[in-house]
Amino acid sequence: VPQVVGITLDTLNFVEGIFTTEMNSATDNPLVFGAGEGQDIEHADIISAGNFHGEYPAKALDFLTIAVHEIGNMSERRLERLCNPTCSNLPAFLVDSPGLNSGFMIPHCTSAALVSENKTLCFPSSADTQSTSAGKEDHVSMGGWSARKALTVVKNLENVLAIELIAACQALEFKRPLRTTEPLEAVYRLVRSKVEPYVKDRAFTPDIEVVQEMIEKNLIWDTVAQYLESDPLWDEF
């Protein structure tokens, strides 16, 4: 996990550093530096530069999009193995009477579709440029599209993770009375407080939405965090 998820964490920290610097930087153009005390206005410095350009945020957001997408890539692969009885030794598509019930077949297709969409959104928009402002801005960052893409990829990822989490809880049903680790049992209880086990086919949308909201509001993280506070690596998070 550190070898593949760790780089996403490092990327998040890198992007946070870039944005902390940018948000505390001057972005006006031109920059006007006032004259010293007792000096005439003619002594003021007016400097035209590219502080408005936004290249740093654009590149950082493109990097963020790629790193976040990778988490979804791995999540979808785990989900496929859970649903595949050849790999999991569980009922096909995690439901009794597969064939009569579709189980998690369609949620897996949804996850695969979202991951595929994210792949297309990983193309760096900051690699493009179009001349604007009558040629005065002959190189632009396209950072606005970088930001919109990043938001879409994050939202898609939340849904991908929600689907996997629901599927993982369903897989546990077939392993009872065995128990997993205490942190994961706590997550299981949280999910089961809103999502019942799947006995036969039903609409998945409401369940995916409620678990996606848990992820968005950090409820999953908060549930696990209490078990990690004694870990010496805790401060890294």
Brief account:
By secondary structure, this protein is mostly helical. The protein has helices at residues 2-23, 55-83, 85-88, 105-121, 143-173, 182-192, 205-216, 219-228, and strands at residues 31-33, 45-47. The protein contains eight helices and two strands, in the order αββααααααα.
Annotation keywords:
237 residues; mainly alpha; two-stranded antiparallel ribbon; 8 helices; 2 strands; 3% strand; elongated
Across the major sheet, the strand order is 1-2
Distance between the termini: 15 Å
> What pattern of helices and strands is seen along the backbone?
HEEHHHHHHH
Provide the structure class: mainly alpha
Report the helical percentage.
55-70%
Question: How would you sum up this structure, described in words?
Answer:
The chain is mostly helical. The chain contains eight helices and two strands; from the N terminus they run αββααααααα. The protein has helices at 2-23, 55-83, 85-88, 105-121, 143-173, 182-192, 205-216, 219-228; strands at 31-33, 45-47. The chain has a two-stranded antiparallel sheet. The protein starts with a helix and ends in a 9-residue tail after the last helix. 24% of the residues are buried.
